[in-house]
Design a protein that fits this description.
Blueprint: H1 2-8, H2 17-39, H3 48-72, H4 78-90, H5 94-117, H6 125-144, H7 146-151
Helix pairs in contact: 3-6, 4-5, 5-6
Length: 154
């Protein structure tokens, strides 16, 4: 109801339907994550090196997905949409801003973990690596595949 009031009061310059659509898209995305976890239960590396390899593969896939999401310029997940809002407002680079955002989320998660459990819970080296790598991969792909956006192939 509040969203409709914003639209009626003339705030349509910044408010778009895609902002509301982030809610169902996030729910659907969550179900796809659950489905993927179910399909890949057989992937459970025991060796630390293989865990890092799987993490790097996951970062590549996620970085490519983030790049495609930004390139498509449609409804985004809230995290990337927040980063895009910063990029558009302050005219910064998406990849760099994404790295800063992801690292800040990891730092906040670590601080909350210490605040509530008195120890570091759920934030390990994989979280830090992913926070640093996903935005970097999206930025590199953005530079290497810039011709796709220019030629409107997608």
């Amino acid at each position: 109801m509040k969203c409709l009031m914003y639209m009626k009061c003339g705030y349509t310059t910044w408010f778009k339907l895609e902002h509301v659509l982030q809610i169902p898209v996030s729910v659907i995305f969550g179900y796809f994550i659950d489905l993927t976890m179910l399909l890949f239960t057989w992937v459970n590396p025991q060796a630390y090196v293989m865990k890092i390899v799987d993490l790097l593969i996951g970062c590549l896939i996620l970085g490519f997905g983030v790049y495609m999401e930004v390139l498509a310029d449609v409804v985004m997940l809230p995290g990337e949409s927040f980063v895009r809002a910063i990029v558009l407002t302050w005219e910064t680079n998406f990849g760099t801003t994404k790295i800063c955002f992801d690292v800040s989320m990891a730092v906040i998660a670590a601080a909350l973990s210490f605040a509530f459990t008195r120890r570091l819970n759920g934030v390990c080296e994989g979280t830090v690596i992913a926070a640093l790598l996903v935005g970097y991969i999206a930025r590199v792909l953005g530079k290497k595949l810039a011709f796709v956006k220019e030629k409107h192939l997608i």
